[in-house]
Design a protein that fits this description.
Helix content is about 65%, strand content about 5%. Strand 3 and strand 4 form a beta hairpin. The strands form 2 sheets. The chain has a 3-stranded antiparallel sheet. Strands 1-5 form a two-stranded antiparallel sheet. The longest helix is centred in the first third of the chain and has 34 residues. The chain has 2 domains: about 200 residues, no CATH class; about 130 residues, no CATH class. It is mainly α. The chain is globular and about 70 Å long.
Length: about 450
């Protein structure tokens, strides 16, 4: 018989078996002071290592893409984007002409001067032009470091001040009056919020992308950005300015998504928060519920709550294909209230017709397209998000205004950018255009072979 003993005359010793099941023939050797881990804990550690490995691979892949992109393009410093400048000047000019036409009867009835509102509008446009030129000449890197936080802080202070000393007009309390000049802090907050979010995403983008686990992802991708969005929306909502709150929320979420925040967590959190906030606002403010009921009702009183919307729709319909002609509107003679402001699009359609409406919509589409082109060519994340946010603000506000005038969504106070009569809103808008033009002076383009 063969000897079953091992070398040296001793039988081979089997490793000790763990009680409660087989270990596959291997011993679980425990180091001194080590703590035993259960199978579930080991599985969690394995998953965490796998997630970390995927994050590292994603970071390497992104770095390679960035390097390849950098090798294909070159940075250029030149003049402002001429197409965007032409679109801005055209929109401002058309706005001044339409303000003159829409406001002439109102100005003449109030003071005997039909040019009353045009004169003020031109003054605001002149101040805005100075602000646009100054912002264009100022390199964005000058205010990139602390400018966004300072602007956000100033906007928050003004939003608090308007609640104390602001003048009430109807249910809303949105304006601070300095003599005959009015300041609407919510307009300042729009650009301040864009700057603040662009600053945060540019500064913490690596942490956002490389976050591991629900806590880290939620903290850097949702919680911290919402710390800018939520207070701004709350302060504007306290002014009873629901449309301004909606625009701020849409702007903030858009910048977050384009900046690389988690799509799933951002959309879920914003949807829950938005529904709760709007529902609570409507429940606490009967006038908001009345507007909603007026919009959904089939037998609304067109001589009462539905007067403005009904007259605006009549103005649009009476314009036909080519319109009644510039200055020939009938509805602006005290039929359409706020004809030179929120409902100026209805007068535009009445005087210039369906063709004129399509032309104006095409101008805004061209503005959005060119703005996004500038954003894609921007030299860094901060400048890209600033341009994207401002252009999105103009686009969202323009099309929400048109939908209100056309009775597609409930009536609420939203001005038409560049076209509506405005004071601080026009000045701020022109200043924002200066930011876009300033960033357009420094861009990337493909290298010539």
């Amino acid at each position: 018989m063969a000897d079953n003993k091992g070398r040296g005359g001793k039988r081979p010793v089997r490793p000790p078996q763990r009680r409660g099941g087989s270990t596959g023939g291997r011993a679980a050797v425990r180091k001194p002071g080590a703590v035993a881990r259960s199978g579930r804990e080991v599985e969690k550690v394995g998953r965490r290592d796998l997630v970390r490995t995927k994050a590292e691979l994603r970071a390497i892949r992104d770095e390679r893409r960035e390097t390849a992109w950098q090798n294909e393009v070159e940075r250029v410093r030149g003049g402002v984007d001429k197409i965007m400048l032409a679109l801005i000047l055209l929109l401002v000019t058309l706005g001044a002409l339409m303000v003159f036409s829409a406001s002439y009867p109102t100005g003449y009835a109030e003071s005997g001067d039909g040019f009353k509102y045009l004169k003020k509008h031109l003054i605001y446009a002149g101040i805005g032009a100075v602000a646009m030129i100054a912002a264009t000449l100022l390199p964005y890197r000058v205010y990139k470091k602390w400018g966004p936080i300072v602007a956000y802080g100033i906007a928050m202070v003004l939003l608090a001040v308007v609640l104390v000393i602001g003048r009430s007009e109807g249910e809303a309390k949105r304006w601070i009056y300095i003599g005959s000049f009015s300041v609407q802090p919510s307009e300042i907050m729009k650009v301040a919020l864009i700057l603040a979010l662009a600053w945060y995403i540019d500064k913490y983008r690596d942490r956002m992308k490389n976050a591991i686990g629900f806590r880290e992802i939620f903290k850097y991708n949702v919680l911290y950005p919402f710390c800018f969005i939520a207070p701004a929306c709350l302060m504007v909502l306290l002014e009873k300015h629901l449309s301004g709150t909606v625009i701020l929320a849409l702007l903030g979420i858009s910048v977050m998504l384009i900046g690389g925040c988690s799509i799933k967590y951002t959309l879920i959190s914003s949807t829950i928060g938005g529904v709760l906030a709007v529902g609570l606002f409507i429940a606490k403010n009967p006038y908001a519920l009345k507007r909603l009921v007026t919009f959904t009702s089939d037998d609304v009183d067109i001589l009462g709550a539905g007067w403005q919307t009904h007259q605006g729709v009549l103005a649009i319909g009476s314009g036909g294909l080519f319109g009644l002609g510039f200055g020939q509107s009938n509805q602006k003679h005290s039929y359409v209230s706020m004809a030179h402001n929120d409902f100026i699009f209805s007068i535009w359609c009445e005087e210039l017709g369906f063709i004129g409406a399509i032309f104006l919509i095409a101008l805004f589409v061209a503005f959005i397209w060119r703005g996004y082109v500038i954003a894609m060519r921007a030299p860094d994340t901060f400048s890209m998000l600033v341009v994207f946010g401002i252009v999105t603000q103009v686009g969202v506000q323009a099309f929400l205004n048109m939908m209100v005038v056309c009775d597609i969504i409930p009536n609420t106070g939203i001005s038409l950018p560049f076209i509506s009569y405005g004071g601080s809103s026009l000045i701020m808008l022109m200043g924002e255009m200066g930011l876009i033009l300033s960033i357009s002076r420094r861009f990337y383009r493909k290298k010539e072979l």
